[in-house]
Amino acid sequence: MSSDLILVTGSAGRVGQAVVKELLVRGERVRGFDRLATPGLADSHIGNLTDAAAVRRAAEGADVVIHLAATPDDADFMSEILPNNLIGLHHVLEATRLAGARRLVLASTGQVNWWQRERTRHAIRPDELPSPRYWYAAAKVFAEAIGQSYSETHGLSVIAARLGWCPRPGQEKEIAALEWARDLYLSPGDAGRFFYAAARAPLALRFTVVYATSRHIHLPRFDLGPTKALLGWEPQEQWPDGLPPEVLA
Question: Which of 43, 164, 183, 234 could form an SS bridge with 31, CB 3.0 to 4.6 Å?
Fold first, then answer.
């Protein structure tokens, strides 16, 4: 039996902590799942995505699952991408289904449209064919596809979120040096507000793919129009809002 509980996998990560913070501010019941305890969250399950039983325990009673946990960029396929981003994805989808949850939000990436972004100046739409950067992005294309399959097969409402660049510590200067990267920046605050909107969007949304970035500086790289229309979300910040000033010094 589902409830109003929201499970956030990857809750101790950079995006995960921003999402948990926003959900708690909104008065939501939140449970975290990560390899480490989630700061500031009492209901924090510790486990690994490759442990199907641990994932099922974390999902028990959840109405919404926000799946953020993954190897966060290109890495060795056999030892990192396969177990964490594909096998772990299987465990999360099955746990979501078995828990009777009604909504699943899958963290995808703007890297699924990497080569379009390299070669065009228009804002890429969610319905354009993907051109994944490499194995990490290809695994996210698979995640979107199997998310749609679960929606069609099991009646689960699934939102696939192609995220911009929410930098890990040490990546901030890399973004600062790249014009296009500053347009793809996703601030922690915008990320938290986006995932709240995705979690509580109308359940009439059966399956959809949307983009999430903060406000662009130079050019809109991704079309955020469907995000506003379907989720009622618009970014409030832009590069480098939300970052400690010292990281760019």
Answer: 43
